[in-house]
UniProtKB/TrEMBL annotation:
Keywords: ATP-binding, Nucleotide-binding. This is Replication-associated recombination protein A. Signal peptide: none annotated. Residues 1-22 are annotated as: Disordered. GO terms for biological process: DNA synthesis involved in DNA repair; DNA-templated DNA replication. The keyword ATP-binding applies. It comes from the Bacteria. The keyword Repressor does not apply. InterPro entries: AAA+_ATPase, AAA_assoc_2, AAA_ATPase_RarA/MGS1/WRNIP1, ATPase_AAA_core, DNA_pol3_clamp-load_cplx_C, MgsA_C, P-loop_NTPase. Belongs to the AAA ATPase family. RarA/MGS1/WRNIP1 subfamily. Pfam families: AAA, AAA_assoc_2, MgsA_C. One of its GO terms (molecular function) is ATP binding.
Length: 451
């Protein structure tokens, strides 16, 4: 069966028997005004609203749209709403299972339909980053000739995962993670709406809070868990979804963790102090608690980057690049896979040799500056490139270190008030031992008096 016919048949079944569809499908917004979150994309006059024909001039812009964002933020929903608002046929394919053959079948069907004055087609292609360059190339004729309105979705950076010709012909829209308030509003709508649970079951506050932690900003995950828990509660003859019922349904214990209260700071502090103390097992425990509580993975990654410099520094120069790479990966992939990346970085930092010399060095330097110990820059270090600098004596007498055999020029670099000040005291752990030797050697050649 052709993909477009399959999608049309599935949509027809949903309209005839809505209860047969999953809750996440039944609660799919029908208009842009029903979409939760993504308010930056839904402002009056925005490209997305113009795409569906709102505003002066009707539909405008490219016939290809790329939606980039974490899972469960509404990429499929936006594509569906565009098709409904423009009265176009909606066809959904996944790059995981579909290939060029399936794409061509949809495009050929769209050309026949448009040529016969039928409905135009919205082709929603999920996970486009999984298509090879050649497979993405096959989409170009359909985009250029507007045979279909292509809406492609990706969780990966499209500047790396989508070919330039397709990217340049597309409107790129970045979706932001849903907030707890966004997901909470969606859950409450699903509880009461005629398309949803029709007020057949209640959701107490503690269960709702745990459901939000489980969801982690993923609307689809939230609705799927709600539907399963509601079914279990009704099977028991209960009028509300208890916390125990939810835990049993989703097989996940409620983590006692308030992301906006003391627990948020206490657990984050315990994670960093466990890394500082080189207790890898305790660090992983606190990391797991933060993940299970639905902590923003970007917050965890930021704490790890700080720890890499604050507690490890030059004892392991690879610690900071590992932490930065983890933060970049987390931003690109999101949960649940980001848990692997955060674990990778946490283990590396906990087992690394430790040094706080970078922390104490900048602290001492800042302390002097705040006390007013600054003074003018020595004349030979000042900028000598502008007209008149020579008359002022700027850059006169400066010795270029690269001209010397050892690459060290014994000249004064610090202001007079600080010329003998030493801020950096290297440790002797790990790789920093060689920095300790280098500091001693260079200070001797600079003719620095020991403070």
């Amino acid at each position: 069966m052709e993909p477009d016919l399959f999608t049309a048949a599935a949509e027809e079944r949903q309209e005839k028997d809505p209860a047969a569809s999953p809750l996440a499908v039944r609660m799919r917004p029908r208009t842009l005004d029903e979409v939760v979150g993504q308010q930056h994309l839904l402002k009056p006059g925005s490209p997305l609203r113009r795409l569906v024909g709102e505003g002066a001039g009707g539909p405008a812009g490219p016939s290809s749209v790329i939606l980039w964002g974490p899972p469960g933020t509404g990429k499929t929903t936006l594509a569906y709403v565009v098709s409904k608002a423009t009265n176009k046929r909606f066809v959904e394919l996944s790059a995981i299972t579909a290939g060029v053959k399936e794409v061509r079948a949809v495009i050929d069907g769209a050309r026949r339909a448009s040529g016969g004055y039928g409905k135009e087609t919205v082709l929603f292609l999920d996970e486009i980053h999984r298509f090879s360059k050649a497979q993405q190339d096959s989409l170009l004729p359909a985009v250029e000739n507007r045979w279909v309105t292509l809406i492609a979705a990706t969780t990966e950076n499209p500047y790396f995962s989508v070919i330039s010709p397709l990217l340049s012909r597309s409107l790129l829209l970045t979706l932001e993670p849903l907030t707890d308030d966004d997901v909470r509003g969606l859950l409450r709508r699903a509880l009461d709406d005629e398309r949803g649970l029709k007020s057949t079951v209640a959701l107490p506050e503690d269960t709702e809070d745990h459901l939000l932690r489980i969801a982690g900003g993923d609307a689809r995950r939230a609705l799927t868990a709600l539907e399963a828990a509601a079914g279990a509660a009704l099977d028991k003859g209960e009028s509300e979804i208890g916390l125990t019922t939810l835990e049993e349904t989703v097989d996940r214990a409620a983590v006692k963790y308030d992301r906006d209260g003391d627990q948020h700071y206490d657990v984050a502090s315990a994670l960093i102090k466990s890394i500082r103390g080189s207790d890898v097992d305790a660090a992983l425990h606190y990391l797991a608690r933060m993940i299970e509580a639905g902590e923003d993975p970007r917050f965890i990654a930021r704490r790890l980057m700080i720890s890499a410099s604050e507690d490890i520094g030059l004892a392991d120069p690879n610690a900071l690049p590992i932490a930065v790479a983890a933060a970049q990966a987390v931003a690109m992939i999101g949960f649940p896979e980001a848990a692997l990346t955060l674990s990778h970085a946490t283990i590396a930092l906990a087992l690394a040799p430790k040094s706080n010399s970078a922390t104490t060095a900048i602290g001492a330097a800042l302390d002097d500056v705040r006390k007013g110990l600054a003074g003018p820059v020595p004349p030979h270090l000042r900028d000598g490139h502008y007209k008149g600098a020579a008359k002022l004596g700027h850059a006169q007498g400066y010795v270029y270190p690269h001209d010397l055999p050892e690459g060290i020029a014994a000249q004064q670099y610090a202001p007079d008030a600080l010329k003998d000040r030493e801020y950096y005291t290297p440790g002797r752990h790990g790789a920093e031992a060689r920095y300790a030797d280098a500091v001693e050697w260079t200070r001797q050649r600079l003719g620095r008096k020991r403070s």
